[in-house]
UniProtKB/TrEMBL annotation:
Name the UniProt record assigns to this protein: YcnI family protein
Disordered: annotated segments: 183-206
Origin: domain of life: Bacteria
Signal sequence range: 1-29
Amino acid sequence: MRALPAVRLASAGLLATVAVLAAALPAAAHVTVQPGNATQGGYTAVAFRVPNESDTASTVKLEVNLPMDHPMASVRTQPLPGWTATLEKSKLDKPLNAHGKEITEAVSKITWTADAGTKIGPGQFQEFRVSLGALPTDTDKLTFKALQTYDNGDVARWIEEAKDGQPEPAKPAPVLTLDKAAAAGDHHSGDAAAAKPQASPGQAAAASDDATARTLGVVGIVVGVIGAALGVAGLRRKNA
């Protein structure tokens, strides 16, 4: 009977370990900005990564709202075969100055609509690339609220903003974190972040997959070790 406490202890350890490691696994797929950070005051190219979360419907439209409290003078989309991009502009309360020119309106919304025969099907994702600048210097993040429309009429609203000390919302809005520039300089000649190589969206996806695989490997090892411990405890109880 001495082995019974050991069995209970090992079982409790197994449950606790699995719970901790499960919490470390990536959350459900969301619409995100890749890469997730850029440099204040510079120019950057990002991709809005859109996973299709439905098992029965396909994504046929993406709408991304740009933060008008921190407007950007230059917003350009990269052509994507099978998709038509439309840029909407809004008047600015306070004009921007870009290269000595006063800008009175800025892009406030980008809509990508799938052409006939194009879609993001179940188990697939797509990336929509955009060039942005100049990035603001008076904030540490930009939030892009997005709407993902499926061919069955469903709309996933990625518009919830995370709050400090609170769990991640169910439908978080994509966020681009802005880092301070390392040194003053002419950001218009190129993004200051270019001096530090950043992973491409494809490399970021591979890194995420690798991290997931490693985490699952650790879970397997830990479960195997605890399983062996349970086996030993069971043998001891049998022999007792």
